[in-house]
TrEMBL record:
G-protein coupled receptors family 1 profile domain mapped to chain residues: 41-286
The UniProt record lists the keyword Nucleotide-binding: no
PROSITE patterns per record: G_PROTEIN_RECEP_F1_1 (PS00237), G_PROTEIN_RECEP_F1_2 (PS50262)
Organism: Equus caballus
Protein name: Olfactory receptor
Its membrane topology: Multi-pass membrane protein
Chain ranges passing through the membrane: 27-49, 99-121, 141-159, 236-257, 269-288
InterPro entries the UniProt entry points to: GPCR_Rhodpsn, GPCR_Rhodpsn_7TM, Olfact_rcpt, Olfactory_Receptors
Gene: OR4Q2
Length: 316
């Protein structure tokens, strides 16, 4: 195909979930609740970590605050556009905006994968080498590891995006999802995508699968090295929240990206899980299973004056 004929498609049509207005209205309310809950929960965790001296000085909670920020970014890449499309008759997205959405989706998503791996290493050091924990996991090292996670996500996303924009798009333009992602977009290319698909599956699939294996290996190492039943119980309690977050995030990602880019009927639901639901659940998982975070949140609530005001009204 002549180069002058490439990129004829200037906008894509997103499939969305339904064409029935009443169903779309109900989904708008539901996903707006999800998105608002994501903001409230993650901002609350960031504010709690930043305001509490103990949490702010702890490597674990420093990483948790960064995870909350990534969750906010990740959800914001797709959810606002999804909410707007629930109110639109035709769900259009310009080509340039589609590529930008695709770039940030993989940028933030890969950065979160790397950060979750860093958090597993942090727990491994804390439990296996408690006396040297603060020395090994210094604030300087934590900042370097967080920056490396962002850089790794950027490099991964740049590679994926460059491979995508080099493809010619001349129709059809119906993206079989509610956002622009590599699997449904490159299927619309007017070219043989076998090699590109192989490279992308190798890239995305390798990152998600290898990170997941490293995470499981870290937690297995923790359990193997701890001999006592009481120690294992405490380790499971400490790592349980991490394992739930890892499973919720990595499971869907491996399902979507670690296989050839063929379409399954459950792909949209799986995409909702890791794009919308997981960023909302992460704050709940970490706070409900963590007494230190709940105590710090109570202190923040009291310092804000809202807690005292409420108790004063109850006494009256």
């Amino acid at each position: 195909m002549d180069k002058n004929q490439t990129e004829v498609v200037r906008e894509f049509v997103l499939a969305g979930f339904s064409q029935t207005p009443s169903i779309e209205a109900g989904l708008f309310v539901l996903f707006l609740f999800f998105y608002m809950s994501t903001w409230v929960g993650n901002v609350l965790i960031m504010a709690t970590v930043a305001s509490d001296n103990y949490l702010n000085s702890s490597p674990m909670y420093f990483l948790l605050g960064n995870l909350s920020f990534l969750d906010l970014c990740y959800s914001t890449v797709t959810t606002p556009k999804l909410l707007a499309d629930f109110l639109a008759n035709v769900k259009l997205i310009p080509y340039d905006q589609c590529i930008v959405q695709l770039f940030f989706l993989h940028f933030v998503g890969a950065a979160e994968m790397f950060l979750l791996t860093v958090m597993a290493y942090d727990r491994c050091v804390a439990i296996c080498r408690p006396l040297h924990y603060t020395t090994i996991m210094s604030r300087g090292l934590c900042r370097v590891l967080v920056a490396a996670s962002w850089m790794g996500g950027f490099v991964h996303s740049i590679v994926q995006t460059i491979l995508t924009i080099r493809l010619p798009f001349c129709g059809p333009n119906q993206v079989d999802n509610f956002f622009c992602d590599i699997p449904p977009v490159i299927k619309l290319a007017c070219a043989d995508i076998f090699i590109i698909e192989l490279l992308m599956v190798s890239n995305s699939g390798l990152i998600s699968t290898s990170s997941f294996v490293v995470l499981l290996s870290s937690y297995t190492t923790i359990l193997v090295k701890i001999r006592s039943k009481e120690g294992r119980r405490k380790a499971l309690s400490t790592c349980g929240s991490h394992l739930m977050v890892v499973t919720l995030f990595f499971g869907p990602c491996i399902f979507i990206y670690a296989r050839p880019f063929s379409t399954f009927s459950v792909d949209k639901m799986v995409s909702v899980l890791y794009n919308v639901i997981t960023p909302m659940l992460n704050p709940l998982i970490y706070t409900l299973r963590n007494k230190e975070v709940k105590t710090a949140m109570q202190k923040l609530w009291d310092r804000s004056g809202l807690g005292k005001s409420r108790r004063h009204k109850m006494l009256k």
